[in-house]
């Protein structure tokens, strides 16, 4: 692989976006990607403690444990612990009274930071239960093409000796029970094998209006950039 192709895709996009902004003649596919890139604001990592209070966090914990009991076979994913389906919010409404205020909180935060007026919604929601030895492989939740703006995790219950969540280039974050962590869906993160229990609700939040750039168009742009 050439040195150019080892460069991070997002860095290449930024370079070509800059050329577009400066008025250089650029392939119209790159123009579309540049426009999409500008719309993809990267949310800094946000940590909020004591989101709902002890009573509600205990209730969410029990709802997750009950859901696990009724659905003992978890999905296969980067999460190497029991976890429900990515579309749990479409399969049950037991978490709705909690996820709705989280979406509103996330929307207000995003719009305040970026001076936007976006209307956001849940695109994916799953719950998970980590026991000793469970972990999550390094991954992210989206690319520039995906509509997801914000990913997050609400920690209903975390034992003191539970593993942190680690974001690329950041110090480990040790969440507490009833804490909420929000981050850009493009941010790489992982969870090392844990000694303590973690009971969580994770989600991806997107705009209600979707980009017009198709997967084929996105791939064509990336190929165009990498072949320059």
What top-tier CATH class of the largest domain fits best? Answer: Mainly Beta
Task: Using the alpha-carbon principal axes, give the shape.
Answer: globular
- Name the helix and strand elements from N-terminus to C-terminus, one letter apiece: HHHEHEEHHEEEEEEEH
**Sheet/helix structural class:** alpha+beta
CATH third-level topology of the largest domain = Jelly Rolls
Q: Which radius of gyration do the C-alpha atoms yield?
A: 19 Å
Q: Low-confidence parts, pLDDT < 50 over ≥5 residues?
A: 1-7
Number of helices: 7
Specify the biggest β-sheet. Answer: 6 strands, antiparallel
- What is the β-strand count? 10
DSSP strand (E) fraction? 15-25%
**N-to-C terminal Cα separation, in Å?**
14 Å
Q: Biggest sheet, strands in spatial order?
A: 1-8-6-10-4-3
CATH architecture assignment name of the largest domain = Sandwich
Percent range of helical residues: 25-40%
As for the number of domains, it is 2
List the helices and strands and how they pair.
Elements: H1 3-6, H2 9-21, H3 28-39, E1 46-48, H4 54-70, E2 79-80, E3 82-83, H5 88-91, H6 96-114, E4 120-130, E5 135-139, E6 148-158, E7 166-167, E8 179-184, E9 189-191, E10 198-207, H7 215-226
Helix pairs in contact: 2-3
């Amino acid at each position: 692989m050439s040195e150019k192709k080892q460069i991070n895709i997002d860095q290449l996009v930024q370079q070509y976006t800059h050329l577009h902004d400066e008025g250089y003649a650029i392939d119209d596919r790159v123009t579309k990607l540049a426009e999409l890139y500008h719309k993809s604001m990267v949310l800094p990592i946000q940590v909020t403690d004591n989101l709902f209070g002890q009573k509600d966090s205990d209730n969410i914990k029990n709802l997750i444990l009950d859901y696990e009991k009724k659905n003992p076979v978890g999905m296969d994913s980067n999460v190497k612990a029991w976890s429900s389906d990515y579309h749990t919010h479409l399969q049950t409404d037991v978490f709705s009274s909690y996820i709705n205020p989280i979406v509103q909180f996330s929307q207000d935060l995003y719009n305040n930071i970026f001076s936007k007026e976006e209307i956001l919604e849940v695109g994916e929601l799953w719950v998970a239960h980590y026991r000793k030895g469970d972990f999550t492989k390094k991954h992210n939740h989206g690319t520039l093409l995906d509509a997801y703006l914000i990913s997050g995790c609400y920690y209903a219950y975390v034992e003191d000796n539970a593993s942190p969540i680690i974001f690329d280039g950041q110090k480990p974050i040790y969440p507490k029970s009833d804490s909420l962590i929000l981050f850009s869906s493009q941010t790489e993160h992982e969870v090392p094998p844990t000694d303590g229990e973690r009971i969580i609700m994770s989600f991806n939040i997107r705009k209600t209006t979707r980009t017009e750039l198709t997967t084929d168009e996105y791939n064509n742009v990336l190929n165009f950039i990498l072949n320059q």
